[in-house]
Amino acid sequence: MCTVSGFESGRRLCLLAEVGGTGFALEATSIVEVAMVAEEATVLRGQLPLVPLLERFGAPAGPPGTVAVVLDVSPTLTVRMERVAGVVDVGRAPFFLLPPWLGEGLIGRFRGALVHDGRLYLELAAEALVEDAGPARAPSLPTHWLAEAPDRALIFRAGNSLYGVPLALAGQVVPLQPPSLARLPVQEGPVMGLYSHASALWPVCHPGRLAGGEGGFEDHLIFTEPAGQGVALSAGEILGVVDGLLETDRPGAFVGPGMQSPALFLDLPRMFS
């Protein structure tokens, strides 16, 4: 979790755009020109190559965008975006710095994140887009399983598996609201995106990815703060609170009354410490 760093003072203009369903922002002072281009175009004005924004992060380019944004960097870079919401004053918009533990290889490409009209935008650092730094990656985490059954736990389904979080770690559970979510352009790692909630910025992880497997965004988020790090867990069906959990022969797997199969418990404090 990264709390809001306060409001920007004074007037600050940003271009707000969308690529792949994620909102991005660029300071207007870093932009030379914004132009419409045809889907089949590969250059602007016959000389400026059009680079799909997501390619700078090593992600699939997605559908060809029809907006070209010429950046005031050296050498000149023209990035391609799908649509532009306009240039707006975000001087008083809530602004967040990205959590440092996401790693310089990822957060170095962003200035931070901001909320405008209820939507979360990742603010790009224009100068960091000049060089192709390769795929953006959130840091991997060692997988640790909880050693002892907690007294009480919140049980939920994510993907095809049951998981649990000790009730002492489980905070608020909310339905995922797409405008508050910004998907990170990463190809691997446990962190899939960032979420604005309760005046804070929360990295979103899927428990399947934390366990070394796969997973995506589901219908709910469970807010936790293991080892002082705010993390939102992506969850599907919320099954409720269970008492009297018992150990099984599988590490980190505990079963409670009325449960037909055990739930997996990651040792989140140990993983995020």
Helix/sheet category: mainly beta
Shape verdict: elongated
Q: What is the makeup of the main sheet?
A: 7 strands, mixed
Uncertain regions spanning at least 5 consecutive residues: none
Count of distinct structural domains? 2
Please, how many helices? 3
Number of strands: 24
Q: What is the string of helix and strand elements?
A: EEEEEEEEEEHEEEEEEEEHEEEEEEH
Radius of gyration over C-alpha positions, nearest whole angstrom: 21 Å
CATH homologous superfamily identity of the largest domain: SH3 Domains
Q: Determine the fraction of residues in helical runs and give it as a percent range.
A: under 10%
End-to-end distance, in Å? 14 Å
Percentage of residues in DSSP E strands: 35-45%
User: CATH first level of the largest domain: which class?
Assistant: Mainly Beta
CATH architecture of the largest domain: Roll
**CATH topology call of the largest domain:** SH3 type barrels
**Mean of residue pLDDT values:** 91
Describe this protein with a few key phrases.
273 residues; mainly beta; SH3 type barrels; 2 domains; elongated
